[in-house]
């Protein structure tokens, strides 16, 4: 008997540190208000899953209950269905809970044989998961991990904090080396860093509008327009559809987006420092522009353009005014219309697409507005109006020639004497 008692004590001592470690490092929260389950590990929210809970509110117990067993292919005893059977309503994974005086035999987190039941109030008290989800959780969670079941409007992080679970330090967001003050904390979910969209986009100089009726948030910055819809993996950026790996989420009346989307939407470089939990946003450097002089049909225009990335852009008003041409600017659409020698070119600021006599064309570089002046690639002007270009890199001088417009002279032919005599009054 002494040997048996000693062996029992040794087993308990071996198990206790393991259980304490699980209780400290891991936490599962089940929120019946949203039918969502969150899995935390070492202070991080690792993943969230949809779940099914009790068909009546009192069936799924609320409180904190440790996982006391992990069973694969548990039989459905009351129905006489063997473990592993596709007809088993318990699925093939069982995480038993010490709840209401039952030691992992009655209440559990488990799979199911009806995937459509997930997200609904359907069970007799257990917590159902998609089979694929519970298999993942089964492999990650340790025996002894606490499962906190609540019915709450609070976020998972707030529930975890209130439970005494030690979360990792808050994530900081830096923009060009300076910390951005956000109105709600960023967090990690499903291995993605999610940040509050309004705080970030406002710091980047964008205007943000929220439409609660459609769950749509729209951000505009100069010529860029970004539209997102809560829980949708499609974003609209300047009328183009972009796929998101993580949809925008709404938590505590704040829209969260993955940091990767910020990079794609606004061309911002994003870096993640996992050790120090810092998201660094780095604005793109302004392009290097070398000012050039432009001669158009023999007339010099000082500082009439610039070179950017080996492409010359010319100040349209300055170079064409000498030819008696006045382009028409549409400020609402940032569009410039140039009509010259029975040819019409239409370009839009910050777009590489334009039209020539109504036909679509692609510019080698987008037209831009700089200091209130409209610049267009010189080659686009020359090609559109049958002109020529010559650039001297040593003197930074661009020579452009466009065909002169020859006005037709009006001819007033005099009547011949014979014609005059034929006039009858």
TrEMBL record:
Question: Where in the sequence is the active site?
Answer: 110, 126
Q: Which residues form the L,D-TPase catalytic domain?
A: 26-150
Q: In which pathway does it act?
A: Glycan biosynthesis; Cell wall biogenesis; peptidoglycan biosynthesis
Q: What top-level branch of life does the organism fall under?
A: Bacteria
Name the GO cellular-component terms: extracellular region
Signal sequence span per UniProt? Answer: 1-22
Keyword set for this entry?
Cell shape, Cell wall biogenesis/degradation, Hydrolase, Peptidoglycan synthesis, Signal, Transferase
Q: Which residues cross the membrane?
A: none
Q: Short name of one Pfam family for this protein?
A: YkuD
* InterPro entries with a match to the protein in the record: Cu_amine_oxidase-like_N, LD-transpeptidase, LD_TPept_cat_dom, Mao_N_sf, Transpep_catalytic_dom
An individual GO BP term: peptidoglycan-protein cross-linking
MF (Gene Ontology) = peptidoglycan L,D-transpeptidase activity; transferase activity
Q: Which family does it belong to?
A: Belongs to the YkuD family.
Spell out the protein name for this chain. Answer: L,D-TPase catalytic domain-containing protein
């Amino acid at each position: 008997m002494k040997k048996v008692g000693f062996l029992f004590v040794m087993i308990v001592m071996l198990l206790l540190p393991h259980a304490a470690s699980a209780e400290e490092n891991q936490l599962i929260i089940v929120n019946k208000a949203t039918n969502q389950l969150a899995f935390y590990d070492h202070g991080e929210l690792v993943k969230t899953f949809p779940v099914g809970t009790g068909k009546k509110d009192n069936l799924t117990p609320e409180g904190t209950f440790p996982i006391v067993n992990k069973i694969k292919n548990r039989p459905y005893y009351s129905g006489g269905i063997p473990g592993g059977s596709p007809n088993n309503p318990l699925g093939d994974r069982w995480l038993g809970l010490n709840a209401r005086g039952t030691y992992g035999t009655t209440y559990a987190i488990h799979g199911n044989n009806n995937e459509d039941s997930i997200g609904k109030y359907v069970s007799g008290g257990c917590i159902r998961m998609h089979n694929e989800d519970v298999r993942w959780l089964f492999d990650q969670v340790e025996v002894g991990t606490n499962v906190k079941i609540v019915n709450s409007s609070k976020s998972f992080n707030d529930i975890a904090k209130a439970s005494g679970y030690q979360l990792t330090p808050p994530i900081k967001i830096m923009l060009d080396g300076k910390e951005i003050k956000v109105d709600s904390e960023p967090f990690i979910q499903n291995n993605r860093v999610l940040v509050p969209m309004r705080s970030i986009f406002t710091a980047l100089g964008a205007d943000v509008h929220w439409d609660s009726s459609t769950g749509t948030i729209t951000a505009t910055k100069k010529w860029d327009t970004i539209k997102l819809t809560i829980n949708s993996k499609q974003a609209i950026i300047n009328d183009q559809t972009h796929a998101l790996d993580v949809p925008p989420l709404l938590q505590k009346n704040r829209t969260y987006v993955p940091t990767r989307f910020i990079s794609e939407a606004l061309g911002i470089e994003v870096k993640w420092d996992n050790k120090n939990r810092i998201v660094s946003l780095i604005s793109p450097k302004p392009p290097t522009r070398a000012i050039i002089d432009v001669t158009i049909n023999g007339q010099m225009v000082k500082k009439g353009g610039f070179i950017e990335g080996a492409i010359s852009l010319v100040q349209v008003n300055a170079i064409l005014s000498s030819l008696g041409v006045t382009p028409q600017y549409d400020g609402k659409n940032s569009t410039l219309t140039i009509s010259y020698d029975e040819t019409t070119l239409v370009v839009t600021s910050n777009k590489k697409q334009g039209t020539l006599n109504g036909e679509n064309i692609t510019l080698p570089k987008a037209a831009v507005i700089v200091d209130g002046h409209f610049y267009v690639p010189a080659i686009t002007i020359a090609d559109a109006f049958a002109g020529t270009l010559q650039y001297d890199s040593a003197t930074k001088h661009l020579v452009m020639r466009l065909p002169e417009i020859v006005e037709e002279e009006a001819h007033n032919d005099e009547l011949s004497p014979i014609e005059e005599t034929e006039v009858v009054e």
